[in-house]
Amino acid sequence: MRVKVLFHSYFKDLTGCAETTETLAEGVTLGALHEKLAAQFPKLGAMKKSTLLAVGVDYQPREHVLKDGDEVSLFPPVQGG
Amino acid sequence: MIRQLIITHDPIDETALLADRKMSAGMGAVVYFLGVVRGEEDGQAITAIEYEAFQKMAEHQFNLLFEAMAKRWPIESVRLVHRIGVVKVNEPSLWVEIVAPHRGEAFAACQWLIDEMKRVVPIWKRPVASTAVG
Q1: Which pLDDT band holds residue B131 (cuts at 50, 70, 90)?
Q2: Per the count of CB atoms within 10 A, which of A38, A41, A65, B37 is most buried?
Q3: Nearest CA in chain A to B95
Q4: Which of A10, A56, A78 is opposite residue B122, by nearest beta carbon?
Q5: B51 to A80: CB separation less than 8 angstroms, yes or no
């Protein structure tokens, strides 16, 4: 299955891109995708503990099972206001 | 509960927002808050902050917060404007207004909404150095 991954804020600088597409096995979790991306983009890996994860427009736990066509977002702590 | 959410590149027009206020006879409190860009960030002088939003998720998360507010306090109206893009020092980046029957719930809801926004709404800021602002 394929999922689209979006990087927001300075995570775009850490990865050098705003988005990428990942091909994953069925049943892969959000946490597993995060681990894969952290290995793929070492600067992103260094921010792993503070990274927020969302699928679509909702935050999801690392145990969340992804499905084909999902749009996953990774970003640093938010700072509105 | 009336809800109005605007995430915009345009400057916040306080006069127009105040002129557009609507409240019923039972309402006794209006609290509004203005968040303004300071000229210093982490001890460094700056001239602006550039705000970035993941717009569709920000709208969704704001709406979840509005729903939670409606369950917790008897609020008649919430209006929130958040600027994105470059906001210069002394200009407002955030405008929030709560209309409620009494001041206690109006203050509490306004404080809670801003605190929660800073926790869950995907908006980020980047300080802009003086040489980068036109």
Answers
A1: low
A2: B37
A3: A81
A4: A78
A5: yes
CATH of domain B2-132: 3.90.1170.40
The pair of structure tokens assigned to A52 is 């927020």
Structure tokens at A47: 């921010």
Closest CA–CA distance from residue A62 to any residue of chain B (Å) = 17
pLDDT digits (tens, 9 = 90+) for A32-48: 999 999 999 999 999 99
- Whether domain A2-75 has CATH 3.10.20.30: yes
Of all residues in chain B, the one with the smallest CA distance to A9 is: B124
Domain spans in chain B, listed from the N-terminal domain onward:
2-132
Q: Would you place residue B42 in the very low, low, confident or very high pLDDT band (cuts 50, 70, 90)?
A: confident
The answer to whether the beta carbons of residues B6 and B82 sit under 8 Å apart is yes
In the DSSP assignment, the letter for residue A49 is G
CB B59 within 8 A of CB B4: no
